[in-house]
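User: For my dataset I need records formatted as: sequence, then structure tokens, nothing else. Please produce one.
Assistant:
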Amino acid sequence: MLFIGFWSFELWQPFWTLWLLVHSSYFEATLVDIVFWVVSLAVAMPAGALADRFGRKGAMLAGIVLWNVGVVGFGLSTALPQFALANAAWALGASFLFSSGPAYVYDTLVEAGRENEYPERMSRIAALGFASSAAGSVVGGLVVTATASFQAPLLLSLISGAAAAATVLTFVEPRVPRALGARLAAQIREGLRTTRHNRQLMLLILFQVLIGIVLYVLMFFRAPFLEDLLAGNYLFMGALFGSYFLVAAISSRLVGRILQRLGEAGALAVTFVLVFPPFALFYAVAVGTFSPGTAILLGILAQVPSYVIWGLETPVVTTIINRRVLASERATVLSVSIFFATASLAVVEPVVGYLATDLGLGLGLTVLATVAAVPSALVLISYHRTGITAPVASTAVLPDRGR
């Protein structure tokens, strides 16, 4: 819990895109961001396989160190090649953290024979992370207002990042049997095979890819959209991002109830409903349909559903995946999901950046949401038709759980 609190205390959250846009256009900014996704694409599955092979703790330590090298390097950058290099380090860290973190939590619970608590535990961790990000955003707004610099919050993140790294050193590697293949490449192939042979996993990953593209691109351009809307009031902007993260924290605590009452397909359906309809309002605000006061209010409210989803998505998706795979493949299969989402973003993001540069931000984002909505609905229907049976692998993970 301390780790997620320190890691998530990110002063830069509302302002990192604005720092990049000081030195680039929308399109150039997406090209720089693609470096993050291309590097992630190359290392996502190896990072997950390494975490399965050599342990979660080492992978998380490498991840948090590289993550902070990337963040601070981003803050020191003033030219596009420098931003690209910082993004590469940032991506390496993210690949280790995003695949090994949920696997560490699940395996720790499995070791204690309490894996059924994963949705509740993960939602609690997510809530703490979002609450910490809320506090970080508010402090970041104060820092930017006081220093008149988008660079300062990025550099100051070194303090909380170092504390997060120190916390990882206290972790205990979960003693969960992992029957590993002879080679790393073979392990990656096995993770891909497991994914390919499970229709529910395939559909889940495809759904996550489609939703993830829309949410990430919206997140990437949220800061410049709000900067224009709020006329450069960065103190208010930091507080606004903080309130959004509190929304995510609250929604993340609902994961267990949603899965219990609506089931897996129902939880994914909630995500779909929250993603796409708000884009109509977002577009109307962007093209000047409303008076300035109304536009500010509606523009602020239009962002709220994406933070509700942000609070739900990771606990829901990782719960579904973890239930269906063995401990020896858990981080690898999670990284397969990251791999395909990354590949899609690497293609789509610069297209949206080009549209935003030429046609306006509102139209570019609306085109993306419109294109993604239909296949997302079809995948959701197909997932529901699979019959959603009882978890496949959750009871097979530990032949020896100390019961």
